[in-house]
Design goal:
Blueprint lengths: L7 H14 L6 E3 L12 E3 L2 H4 L19 H10 L4 E6 L1 H16 L5 E6 L15 H20 L17 H10 L3
Parallel strand pairs: 3-4
Antiparallel strand pairs: 1-2
Helix pairs in contact: 3-4, 5-6
Length: 183
Amino acid sequence: TGGLCPGQNTVIRELVLTLNKYGVSKIYGIKHGFKGFVDPESWCELTPELVKDINHRGGTILRSDRGNPPHSEMVEALRKHRIRQLFVLGGDGAHKGILQLCRALVDVDYECACIGVPSTVDNDMPMTDKTFGFDTACSVAKAIIDAAYVEATCNANCIGFVKLLGTDSGLLTVMSVLASKHV
Protein backbone atom coordinates (compact mmCIF):
# COMPACT_ATOMS: atom_id res chain seq x y z
CA THR A 1 0.00 0.00 0.00
CA GLY A 2 1.01 3.58 -0.44
CA GLY A 3 -0.71 5.58 2.28
CA LEU A 4 -2.02 4.70 5.69
CA CYS A 5 -5.70 4.10 6.04
CA PRO A 6 -7.89 3.10 9.00
CA GLY A 7 -8.88 -0.56 8.93
CA GLN A 8 -5.84 -1.98 7.16
CA ASN A 9 -4.82 -4.13 10.13
CA THR A 10 -8.36 -5.49 10.34
CA VAL A 11 -8.29 -6.44 6.65
CA ILE A 12 -4.89 -8.13 7.09
CA ARG A 13 -6.18 -10.04 10.11
CA GLU A 14 -9.33 -11.24 8.36
CA LEU A 15 -7.41 -12.29 5.24
CA VAL A 16 -4.95 -14.34 7.29
CA LEU A 17 -7.65 -15.98 9.41
CA THR A 18 -9.82 -16.80 6.38
CA LEU A 19 -6.96 -18.15 4.27
CA ASN A 20 -5.87 -20.25 7.24
CA LYS A 21 -9.39 -21.70 7.60
CA TYR A 22 -9.26 -22.66 3.93
CA GLY A 23 -6.04 -24.58 4.53
CA VAL A 24 -3.47 -22.18 3.11
CA SER A 25 -0.32 -23.29 4.91
CA LYS A 26 2.01 -20.34 4.23
CA ILE A 27 0.79 -16.76 4.24
CA TYR A 28 3.26 -13.94 3.64
CA GLY A 29 3.00 -10.25 4.26
CA ILE A 30 5.24 -7.83 2.40
CA LYS A 31 6.37 -4.79 4.35
CA HIS A 32 6.82 -1.40 2.67
CA GLY A 33 4.30 -1.86 -0.15
CA PHE A 34 5.44 -2.75 -3.65
CA LYS A 35 9.01 -1.69 -2.77
CA GLY A 36 9.17 -4.61 -0.35
CA PHE A 37 8.70 -7.21 -3.09
CA VAL A 38 12.38 -7.07 -4.05
CA ASP A 39 13.76 -6.93 -0.51
CA PRO A 40 13.94 -10.40 1.11
CA GLU A 41 13.94 -8.74 4.56
CA SER A 42 10.48 -7.30 3.84
CA TRP A 43 8.82 -10.70 3.45
CA CYS A 44 7.36 -12.05 6.68
CA GLU A 45 5.15 -15.00 7.47
CA LEU A 46 1.75 -14.09 8.86
CA THR A 47 0.12 -16.56 11.23
CA PRO A 48 -3.22 -16.48 13.06
CA GLU A 49 -1.32 -16.04 16.32
CA LEU A 50 0.61 -13.05 14.98
CA VAL A 51 -2.48 -11.23 13.67
CA LYS A 52 -5.08 -12.16 16.31
CA ASP A 53 -5.11 -8.72 18.02
CA ILE A 54 -3.78 -6.37 15.32
CA ASN A 55 -7.27 -5.06 14.60
CA HIS A 56 -6.95 -3.02 17.83
CA ARG A 57 -3.86 -1.20 16.56
CA GLY A 58 -3.80 1.73 14.18
CA GLY A 59 -1.76 1.90 11.03
CA THR A 60 -0.56 -1.32 9.45
CA ILE A 61 1.82 -3.98 10.70
CA LEU A 62 3.16 -4.19 7.14
CA ARG A 63 4.16 -0.52 6.97
CA SER A 64 3.35 1.65 3.99
CA ASP A 65 5.57 3.08 1.31
CA ARG A 66 5.15 4.52 -2.15
CA GLY A 67 6.85 3.60 -5.40
CA ASN A 68 7.36 0.51 -7.52
CA PRO A 69 10.43 -1.52 -8.41
CA PRO A 70 10.50 -2.91 -11.96
CA HIS A 71 7.53 -5.22 -12.45
CA SER A 72 9.77 -7.94 -13.86
CA GLU A 73 11.57 -8.06 -10.49
CA MET A 74 8.26 -8.19 -8.64
CA VAL A 75 7.17 -11.13 -10.81
CA GLU A 76 10.43 -12.95 -10.04
CA ALA A 77 9.86 -12.43 -6.31
CA LEU A 78 6.35 -13.88 -6.61
CA ARG A 79 7.72 -16.84 -8.58
CA LYS A 80 10.57 -17.40 -6.10
CA HIS A 81 8.12 -17.56 -3.17
CA ARG A 82 5.65 -19.64 -5.24
CA ILE A 83 2.86 -17.12 -4.64
CA ARG A 84 -0.40 -17.98 -6.41
CA GLN A 85 -2.69 -15.41 -4.76
CA LEU A 86 -1.76 -11.80 -4.09
CA PHE A 87 -3.93 -9.43 -2.07
CA VAL A 88 -3.04 -5.74 -2.30
CA LEU A 89 -4.56 -3.11 -0.02
CA GLY A 90 -4.53 0.41 -1.34
CA GLY A 91 -6.02 3.23 -3.33
CA ASP A 92 -5.91 4.17 -6.98
CA GLY A 93 -2.11 4.07 -7.19
CA ALA A 94 -1.94 0.58 -5.71
CA HIS A 95 -4.65 -0.63 -8.07
CA LYS A 96 -2.82 0.82 -11.08
CA GLY A 97 0.25 -1.04 -9.83
CA ILE A 98 -1.75 -4.29 -9.63
CA LEU A 99 -2.83 -3.87 -13.25
CA GLN A 100 0.76 -3.34 -14.37
CA LEU A 101 1.89 -6.33 -12.30
CA CYS A 102 -0.84 -8.51 -13.87
CA ARG A 103 0.39 -7.55 -17.34
CA ALA A 104 3.94 -8.50 -16.36
CA LEU A 105 2.67 -11.85 -15.00
CA VAL A 106 0.90 -12.57 -18.29
CA ASP A 107 4.04 -11.65 -20.25
CA VAL A 108 6.03 -14.41 -18.51
CA ASP A 109 3.09 -16.84 -18.30
CA TYR A 110 3.09 -17.04 -14.49
CA GLU A 111 -0.30 -17.71 -12.96
CA CYS A 112 -1.07 -15.63 -9.89
CA ALA A 113 -4.48 -14.27 -8.95
CA CYS A 114 -4.17 -10.58 -8.02
CA ILE A 115 -6.89 -9.17 -5.77
CA GLY A 116 -7.15 -5.47 -4.96
CA VAL A 117 -8.76 -4.44 -1.68
CA PRO A 118 -9.82 -0.78 -1.93
CA SER A 119 -8.56 1.03 1.15
CA THR A 120 -8.22 4.78 0.92
CA VAL A 121 -9.55 7.71 2.91
CA ASP A 122 -10.25 9.45 -0.41
CA ASN A 123 -13.07 7.01 -1.32
CA ASP A 124 -12.23 7.65 -4.97
CA MET A 125 -12.13 4.12 -6.33
CA PRO A 126 -14.28 3.55 -9.43
CA MET A 127 -17.12 1.03 -9.01
CA THR A 128 -16.65 1.01 -5.22
CA ASP A 129 -19.36 2.43 -2.99
CA LYS A 130 -17.17 2.87 0.05
CA THR A 131 -13.53 2.09 0.72
CA PHE A 132 -12.00 0.84 3.95
CA GLY A 133 -11.01 3.82 6.06
CA PHE A 134 -13.39 6.39 4.61
CA ASP A 135 -15.97 6.31 7.43
CA THR A 136 -13.31 6.53 10.13
CA ALA A 137 -11.56 9.40 8.34
CA CYS A 138 -14.89 11.26 8.05
CA SER A 139 -15.66 10.76 11.75
CA VAL A 140 -12.25 12.05 12.81
CA ALA A 141 -12.42 14.98 10.37
CA LYS A 142 -15.90 15.90 11.65
CA ALA A 143 -14.58 16.00 15.23
CA ILE A 144 -11.73 18.28 14.13
CA ILE A 145 -14.13 20.58 12.26
CA ASP A 146 -16.39 20.70 15.33
CA ALA A 147 -13.42 21.64 17.54
CA ALA A 148 -12.32 24.36 15.11
CA TYR A 149 -15.87 25.75 15.09
CA VAL A 150 -15.95 25.92 18.89
CA GLU A 151 -12.58 27.67 19.00
CA ALA A 152 -13.60 30.15 16.30
CA THR A 153 -16.95 31.03 17.86
CA CYS A 154 -15.69 31.33 21.43
CA ASN A 155 -12.91 33.80 20.71
CA ALA A 156 -13.00 37.33 19.33
CA ASN A 157 -11.82 37.89 15.76
CA CYS A 158 -11.08 34.23 15.06
CA ILE A 159 -11.78 31.86 12.23
CA GLY A 160 -11.60 28.10 12.22
CA PHE A 161 -9.44 26.67 9.47
CA VAL A 162 -9.17 22.94 8.81
CA LYS A 163 -7.24 21.44 5.92
CA LEU A 164 -8.22 17.92 4.89
CA LEU A 165 -6.42 15.74 2.42
CA GLY A 166 -7.95 14.44 -0.75
CA THR A 167 -5.90 13.56 -3.77
CA ASP A 168 -8.32 14.56 -6.52
CA SER A 169 -11.87 13.84 -5.47
CA GLY A 170 -12.48 15.93 -2.33
CA LEU A 171 -15.07 13.44 -1.05
CA LEU A 172 -13.54 13.32 2.42
CA THR A 173 -13.80 17.10 2.71
CA VAL A 174 -17.34 17.30 1.35
CA MET A 175 -18.73 14.49 3.49
CA SER A 176 -16.98 15.71 6.67
CA VAL A 177 -18.24 19.27 6.22
CA LEU A 178 -21.79 18.05 5.53
CA ALA A 179 -21.65 15.87 8.65
CA SER A 180 -20.45 18.75 10.84
CA LYS A 181 -23.30 21.06 9.76
CA HIS A 182 -21.28 24.19 10.62
CA VAL A 183 -20.61 25.37 7.11
